[in-house]
């Protein structure tokens, strides 16, 4: 069992006896030959690093590190590559990341080819043709990653437009936010959704004038449809997702991943593949506090069992800012769609539900990570944490705000006073910055989405995340967006909110390590810490910041062992292709499970109960 209380455990083994190096000081591997950025303020740079038994034995000048070389010591030549601590995923969904490998890729450029509804239809048709045997066997088509903000029509596809692909085969496509989906007529029929179906609490079934569903399902209308489908995957299916997702994260330099809003089944699948030696990186899971409290209470731990641990609970308060389902404190600026005057979004949970979940976490001393995008959602979270602290005190559980896209500056101050750690989403500035400026919050407030500058003005730590599979877990795109805040159109969205490269790197390493209670073991290249590294094509502090997104992750090292090598691994994502290609049997299994789950909606499958 790997624990988080090993600070200094190796310090006694690195003492010199005169000029003689003792046996326990001989390194397994010495890394040198390129710039080494330790992210450790006490020793920011080094010439070499010695590693023994998966831990860092020594860091410093090459001459000093050479004292740890023995006959069996391997020399790892960086060949000019930049070495940094392994990246730590502040928020993502590593298992659902496997969905990108098993479904049609509906992402827009630069990660896919979908630019309008016609091209979306073409991708679905091509994917169905390429996976003909699986589609015919399972009678199901699934696509992931479309974004109405990037479609020429600036709207969601409808059931009729999916019917143009097939009226006989059920089709489900998932919005890039994962908070919205679209079903064709056959899928709606199988799910038992028709004109008489009421909107669920915290969700919307979009309709035509006569009340007929138009195919678009928001928030819990979609969640209550997709969760039973995923539930039918079973352990083998979830294990397939987990393998593909963890390999994808590793290919972008992440040595620790998060699985936010996990289920018991997802955690068990992670444990299963880990027991087989098939999980290349660490994963911290946060099951849903509305659904999995008993499981969380029985399993939460600061100690890893293998490469998996349950870190706390997830609370989801609202939805997607780019999808206009985040709860604001004012109307949306110019929403695209059929919205009433003064529309400000909505919460996906009631204040009572949020308060009870947060109270439970505080009462039991469990970390809570909370999805709150709009100002209204942050108001709910701030109130809930304040009430919980007043009732139970501060258990030192390091609560985390996730996203906070539309925060007011006073809310930053409230979070600081309450000791809430900010996990922000500056990749929005690239993917949806233009959309936010023109439609969600307007040109003035758009400058302050993902307000990393406000956090640093107050001396606050923060972390940055990709929220994959909302976007690919592209670490260099994340770094670039945090530093430059360039939108797709080339605009700089909020110059005041930009930070320097080193600050952005800390937000991907040592600060999310602190967020996860792992700062003693991860986040910097420091003697005694775990040997988790990423090798980049160039030193990110030595290039033009405008070129950061062009840097490449070449090698990922976990516990001193290479888990990704770009020179040998051809599965890395390319525009227009899935991140990892699934085998025909995997695709067939996946589609069968999704079909059975969709049919289960109509036949009384259990919906999400908060």
TrEMBL record:
Gene3D superfamilies: 3.10.310.70, Metal-dependent hydrolases, Urease, subunit C, domain 1
Example GO molecular function: hydrolase activity, acting on carbon-nitrogen (but not peptide) bonds
UniProt keyword terms in alphabetical order: Signal
Signal peptide: 1-23
Domain Amidohydrolase: 76-564
Cited CDD domains: YtcJ_like (cd01300)
Pfam families: Amidohydro_3 (PF07969)
InterPro entries: Amidohydro_3, Metal-dep_hydrolase_composite, Metal_Hydrolase, YtcJ-like
Protein name: Amidohydrolase 3 domain-containing protein
């Amino acid at each position: 069992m790997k624990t988080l209380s090993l600070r200094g455990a190796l310090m006694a083994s690195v003492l010199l006896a005169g000029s003689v190096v003792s046996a326990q000081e001989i390194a397994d591997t010495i890394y040198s030959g390129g710039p080494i950025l330790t992210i450790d303020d006490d020793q920011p740079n080094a010439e070499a690093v010695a590693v023994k038994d998966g831990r860092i034995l020594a860091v410093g000048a090459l001459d000093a590190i050479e004292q740890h070389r023995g006959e069996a010591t391997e020399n790892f030549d960086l060949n000019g590559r930049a070495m940094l601590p392994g990246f730590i995923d502040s928020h993502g969904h590593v298992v659902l990341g496997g969905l990108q490998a098993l479904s049609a890729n509906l992402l827009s450029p630069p990660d896919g080819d979908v630019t309008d509804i016609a091209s979306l239809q073409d991708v679905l048709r091509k994917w169905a043709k390429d996976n003909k045997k699986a589609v015919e066997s399972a009678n199901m088509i699934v696509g992931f990653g479309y974004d109405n903000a990037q479609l020429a029509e600036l709207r969601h596809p409808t059931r009729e437009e999916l019917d143009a692909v097939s009226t006989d085969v059920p089709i489900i496509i998932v919005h890039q936010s994962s908070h919205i989906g679209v079903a064709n007529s056959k899928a709606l029929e199988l799910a038992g959704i028709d004109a008489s179906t009421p909107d669920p609490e915290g969700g919307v079934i979009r309709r035509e004038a006569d009340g007929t569903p138009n195919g678009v399902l928001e928030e819990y209308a979609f969640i209550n449809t997709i969760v039973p489908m995923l539930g039918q995957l079973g352990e083998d299916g979830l294990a397939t997702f987990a393998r593909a997702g963890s390999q994808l994260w590793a290919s972008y330099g992440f040595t620790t991943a998060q699985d936010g809003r996990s289920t018991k089944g997802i955690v068990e699948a992670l444990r299963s593949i880990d027991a087989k030696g098939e999980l290349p990186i660490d994963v911290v899971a946060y099951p849903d506090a509305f659904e999995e409290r008993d499981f969380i209470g029985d399993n939460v731990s600061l100690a890893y069992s293998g490469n998996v641990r349950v870190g706390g609970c997830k609370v989801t308060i609202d939805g997607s800012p780019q999808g206009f389902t985040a709860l604001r404190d004012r109307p949306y600026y110019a929403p695209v769609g059929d919205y009433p005057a003064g529309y400000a979004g909505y919460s996906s949970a009631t204040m009572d539900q949020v308060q009870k979940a947060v109270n439970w976490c505080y009462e039991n001393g469990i970390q809570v990570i909370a999805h709150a995008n709009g100002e209204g959602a942050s108001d709910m979270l701030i109130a809930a944490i304040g009430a919980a602290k007043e009732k139970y005190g501060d258990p030192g559980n390091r609560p985390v705000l996730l996203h906070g896209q539309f925060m007011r500056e006073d809310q930053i101050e409230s979070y600081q006073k309450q000791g809430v750690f900010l996990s922000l989403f500056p990749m929005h500035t690239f993917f949806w910055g233009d959309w936010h400026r023109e439609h969600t919050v307007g040109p003035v407030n758009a400058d302050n989405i993902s307000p990393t500058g406000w956090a640093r003005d107050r001396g606050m730590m923060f972390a940055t995340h990709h929220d994959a599979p909302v976007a690919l877990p592209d670490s260099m795109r994340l770094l670039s967006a945090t530093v430059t805040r360039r939108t797709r159109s080339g605009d700089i969205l909020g110059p005041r909110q930009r930070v320097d490269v080193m600050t952005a790197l800390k937000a991907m390493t040592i600060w999310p390590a602190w967020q996860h209670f792992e700062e003693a073991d991860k986040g910097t290249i420091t003697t005694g810490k775990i040997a988790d590294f990423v090798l980049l094509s160039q030193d990110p502090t030595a290039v033009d910041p405008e070129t950061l997104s062009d840097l490449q992750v070449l090698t990922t090292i976990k516990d001193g062992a290479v888990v990704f090598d770009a020179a040998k691994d051809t599965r890395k994502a390319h525009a227009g292709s899935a991140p990892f290609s699934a085998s025909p049997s995997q695709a067939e299994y996946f589609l069968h499970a999704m079909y059975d789950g969709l049919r289960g909606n109509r036949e009384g499958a259990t919906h999400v109960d908060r």
